[in-house]
Amino acid sequence: MACKCDLVSVLGVLLVLIIFHTPIIVFAGEGVPNVALFTFGDSNYDAGNKVFLMTAALKYPPQTLWPYGKSRDDPNGKFSDGYIVPDFIADFMAIPGGVPPALKPDANFSRGASFAVAGGSILGSAVESMTLNQQVVRFRSMKSKWTDDYIEKSLFMIYIGTEDYLNFTKTNPTADASAQQAFVTSVTNQLKNDIGLLYGLRGSKFVVQMLPPLGCLPIVRQDYKTGNECYEPLNELAKQHNAKIGPMLNQFAQTSSGFQFTVFDFYSAVIRRIQRPFNYRFFVANASCCGVGTHNAYGCGMSNVHSKLCEYQRSYFFFDGRHNTEKAQEELAHLLYGADPNVVQPMTIRELITFPTGANMREYWEPNKLSIRPRPSNAPYVGFSAY
């Protein structure tokens, strides 16, 4: 009898060990509704729209040529060595092949489209680009491809504003604080209007990505000759812009029925990786993998520029002077989809997609949330990121 009891006990212990040591695998799209992804913005989100706006004189723009697409051996119009953030988000949402550029003829738009265009801005864009407002107008012209119910359940991602502030700083190098503040107000007011238009077109789930520390982009360090330092006037403009995003979206959610959103603190995510690259498995975060100049920041992929190319792009945070490597893009996408509220708030993309459509939000964006817990100065942290 004792032997039988011991045998049962042993079997019970083995069963418990098997249950708790067997990994639980969650596949892409599992538990997430089958909805669309719509992206708006600039070159960081451009899935290839810029190619369809180029003049015939430039048949093969740089982003369609190697080494762009290097990691996937597929230069397809995206400004990276491989996938960009929306590609990974689409993968997490089980959208096969990602979302196509809206300007691509005869593409399959059943699961959404990318309206983002390189050079896109909020206040004014070049002829061969589109402002955010023009992107919204394009969405309106294609809206009949999806039902209103489907649009309401789908995800709208917006990342734009870099061009506005880079151009402002270049053309107004001596602008005082009041002029800077007035410009930021103009940019964010127009952004608010454009988001309102999308809401009026039945969009209800919005992801807005804050601006990064623009003064730390390799192309900015190179142009302004700051060496290893960032160009702080541009960082300050980015901070002023970012400070207005959360309150603006809170107001939408509190006054517009069914409006839902989340905000990605991109500024803090980037500054952490620039200041402590080794913790995130990067070896170079102040220069580009591809380009020429003091920071390898200019001319990647251009036929008339003999640009340098790093040996191993995954060790770099930036692929060219303004855009991140695929490895960095994947890290950022994971933050958007499932990070802590200190990074993306008031909810993750996954939570936003599954949040009941039409319901009013229960939580809102909160200011002054620290993106990283402060560490005592006498206790340096030298470990690597778990990612």
Automatic annotation (TrEMBL):
GO molecular function: lipase activity
InterPro entries, per the entry: GDSL, GLIP1-5/GLL25, SGNH_hydro_sf, SGNH_plant_lipase-like
Entry-linked CDD domains: SGNH_plant_lipase_like (cd01837)
Pfam family membership, one: Lipase_GDSL
Example GO biological process: endoplasmic reticulum organization
UniProtKB keywords: Signal
Keyword Ligase: no
PANTHER family xrefs: GDSL-LIKE LIPASE/ACYLHYDROLASE (PTHR45966), INACTIVE GDSL ESTERASE_LIPASE-LIKE PROTEIN 25 (PTHR45966:SF36)
Annotated family: Belongs to the 'GDSL' lipolytic enzyme family.
Protein name: Uncharacterized protein
Organism: Arabis alpina (Alpine rock-cress)
